# Entry
Amino acid sequence: MTVDRRGLAEFLRGRRETLQPEDVGLPRGERRRTSGLRREEAAVLCHMSSDYYARLEQERGPQPSVQMVAAIAQGLHLSHDERDHLFALAGHTPPARASASDHVGPGMLRIFDRLHDTPVEIVTELGETLRQNTLGAALVGDLSHVRGPERSIGYRWFTEPSTRAVYHPDDHEFLSRLWVSGLREVATRRGAHSRAARYVSMLSAQSAEFRELWERHEVGLRPQRDKRFIHPELGLLELACQTLVDPEQSQALLVYTAAPGSESHEKLRLLSVIGTQSFTSSEEGADG
# Structure
């Protein structure tokens, strides 16, 4: 397949001009004259340079890679049909529409982009973090750059001991059983050639604890609504986890809140300060 540069440029411009700043969690500003998003804003959402994005809209530059097209589809909040169209325009075969996908739908993203004052993340059925807001990263660590099996909390739980430090020690035994029970259910549902099945094989080879729990054949365990986190600076945070599930995507939006007036509620307010400072520091380090 060859790239349709004119069609690609027109499609990108059309989608960018349709999106409003508030649709993607950006401030509108008082002096905005642009209809829709600016090119610079779209580039940031797509995790690429403004120059690269501009060349695509100007029918110039190299053919975008599969990874780049996927980033654009996510950044511009495309539906599955729009994503597949974008892949075709860019000269690539659209990804198979598996029931478990890493592409977050626009409806879920619109909700996510509006939640700024409490920790939020979007995860797959395998506990793979697809999106975190600043507070979510401040609570459990920044997972935006993690790739491969390590993106799954269940996988890291048995292969990286430091993962457990985020959670209250009294909850570790239950969480170990919970991750194994959940993985068993997903692996059974998705089949022998699924990503879940690969995780089972890899963890069985790496973790004696996982093997022992796997042999119990436990199923049906469900996450507890109230969770206890241990933050390195703030200590214990007792939070309620509200879950919004997208059954078509097999993804969940997790929102962590604290009871008003509680000690954890005050700590969440402090977490917002810590999270903003950490985010600013990481940006300055990247610029340097």
The chain is about 45% helix and 10% strand. Residues 279-288 have pLDDT under 50 and may be disordered. The longest helix spans residues 263-287.
